[in-house]
């Protein structure tokens, strides 16, 4: 019996500090062991002197860029106290979601802040 496979999308949400990013990192490590093609990104908080000062965006292939910074001097949209670096987000996150020619076995884990 033939089975049909298609891309799976997983969105993980939850309160701060519950382990969303850790979960995604552990699951992607296990899926890579099975040679499953992964596309996606996670966000990671940035702390300075123990205080959260922003977030970085990290693609599953290891590219890292600024997602947002508190009171940033760059112009851009604001989310609460954070100024979003749109060009960095587009460069890292959107490229991480580019589809390959065949999407039959691609999973897209995305953790959000």
Would you kindly provide a written description of the structure presented here, covering whatever features stand out?
This protein is α/β, with parallel strands linked by helices and 113 residues long. It has 2 helices and 8 strands, in the order E-H-E-E-E-E-E-E-H-E. The strands form 2 sheets. Strands 3-4-5-7-6 form a 5-stranded antiparallel beta sheet. It has a 3-stranded parallel beta sheet with strand order 1-8-2, covered by helices on one side. The longest helix has 14 residues, at 20-33. The radius of gyration is 16 Å and the shape is globular. The termini are far apart. The model has no long low-confidence stretch (mean pLDDT 80).
């Amino acid at each position: 019996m033939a089975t049909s496979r298609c891309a799976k999308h997983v969105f993980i949400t939850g309160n701060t500090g519950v382990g969303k990013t850790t979960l995604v990192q552990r699951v992607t490590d296990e899926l890579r062991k099975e040679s499953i093609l992964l596309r996606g990104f996670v966000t990671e908080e940035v702390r300075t002197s123990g205080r959260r000062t922003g977030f970085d965006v990290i693609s599953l292939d290891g590219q890292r860029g600024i997602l947002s910074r508190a009171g940033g001097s760059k112009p851009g949209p604001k989310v609460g106290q954070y100024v979003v670096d749109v060009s960095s987000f587009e460069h890292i996150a959107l490229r991480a979601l580019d589809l390959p020619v065949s999407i039959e076995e691609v999973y897209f884990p995305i953790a959000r802040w």
